[in-house]
Amino acid sequence: MIGLLGAGLALIYSVIFAVGIYVAVKVYVGRRQRKITKEIPEGICIHCGAKIEDAKCPNCDGIK
Length: 64
Ligand SMILES: [Zn+2]
Description:
Number of helices: 1
Low-confidence stretches: none
Order of helices and strands: H
Bound molecules: zinc ion
């Protein structure tokens, strides 16, 4: 009975651990994405750093 309870607790802990990691990764990715978007100033190309004109980079978008 105690062994069964212990196994159940171990299962519960492993589920909590898995959920915790999932949430931590989600939070980490969300923060990183927010940080990236915050670090890149609006109007600057993320590829070459040129000034964006009409939502397009004159260097990168013009090559197409
Ligand atoms: Zn560019």
